[in-house]
Design brief:
This protein is mainly alpha-helical. The protein has ten helices and no strands. Helix 3 packs across helix 8 and helix 5 crosses helix 9. It is elongated and about 55 Å long.
Length: 213
């Protein structure tokens, strides 16, 4: 999360692009994220609502998978909205607004989940399931229903749920996940590799693996 001394100044060209219509009679071009954050920093609640509307779906998908509880995810989402409101003045543009917002959501989730975190599963315990070639476990991932996968998430450690939720539930790119987590892209790929293997193992243990022909 950025911790600059003040809100990032928004170039005039971005402000103009956000407000001007492309042709007479056309609706205004939607304001870019940086402009919205600048307005939020100035106390504009309408800008906060616009920013929330833009990212709420991805945020909720991430938080629901990460927290493993719909109601808790809704509470964390509200915490995130409040934190964005309070810290908008600190956004300094060192990352995209999207990764900044997801970084705030991750921090709020950590605050909520720290006391109730399940036992972490060491990644080296599932190293044997990290073979990239398609296998019964990978077939299980493709065949299992969403409800089954959601239940299987409960058997994973927070670090594994986190990276899977960001990359697949929220559909964040590897580069953005790396920014949010503060790790190299290669580390993100490695964590995803083992987390997918761990999830596949849980599904296989529950009878969702299929024998290859």
């Amino acid at each position: 999360m950025d911790t600059g001394a003040g809100a990032m100044p928004v170039p005039d060209r971005l402000r103009r692009r956000s407000r001007e219509a492309t042709c007479p009679g056309d609706p205004p071009v939607p304001e870019v994220d940086e402009v919205l954050v600048s307005r939020v920093a100035d106390g504009d609640t309408a800008a906060l609502a616009a920013l929330y509307s833009r990212y709420r779906v991805g945020l909720f998908r991430f938080l629901e998978r990460y927290a493993g509880d719909r109601m808790l995810a809704e509470e964390i989402l509200q915490d995130t909205l409040l934190a964005v409101w309070r810290s908008a003045h600190a956004y300094a543009g060192r990352s995209s607004v999207r990764t900044w917002v997801f970084g705030i959501a991750r921090r709020q989730a950590h605050n909520r989940l720290r006391a109730r975190a399940p036992e972490q599963v060491p990644l080296d315990r599932v190293a044997g399931w990290a073979d990239p070639a398609p296998g019964p476990a990978e077939r299980a991932l493709a065949a299992a229903h969403r409800e089954v996968i959601a239940e299987a998430f409960d058997g994973l450690g927070l670090e594994q749920r986190e990276v899977l939720a960001l990359a697949f539930a929220a559909r964040i790119t590897h580069r953005e996940v790396a920014e949010i987590l503060g790790v190299p892209v290669g580390t993100v790929k490695s964590r995803l590799h083992y987390a997918r293997a761990a999830l596949a193992r849980v599904l296989a243990d529950r009878g969702y693996a299929e024998e290859l022909p």
